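Example record used in the benchmark description.
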Amino acid sequence: MPAATRTGIVLVTGGVAAAGAAYAAAAGLGTAPAWAPWLLAIGASGGSVGLFVLGAATRGTVTPRVTALLAGLFVVLVTSFGVALALGPREGPGGPLLLGLPLRLAVVFYGVGFVPLLALPLAYARTFPAARDGAAAAVPRDAGDDARGSSQHTDHA
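Model output (structure tokens):
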């Protein structure tokens, strides 16, 4: 199994296990322990990035630039969830707003929703260099061309 695929599977499995442990602790104890939301934030971030890794590993590998982008995305996701958890509940009339949204909602909305919306197309575009660079492989061939691109037709002159 290629390393990128293995990494993606480990991240997804670890993220699901972390989220499951957080939910199990809350269900088993009747109330969520203080660490459970943090574990859920880390698990959700890791699981999401793991899915992104699996999607970007089209040939079993991920370029260093895509790896850096996805690592940065993990940091943004964990930070967004962490900031929202660390901020006290101050929603309501007169509460702080960020771009028209209550502060904690804005941090999660922009950090978890909007940033990946911008980052993921860039990551996936970098996994298809032939299509991006306009190489001949991206140009459709005629139906009469064989796999090497040469015509099977013969001219009878």
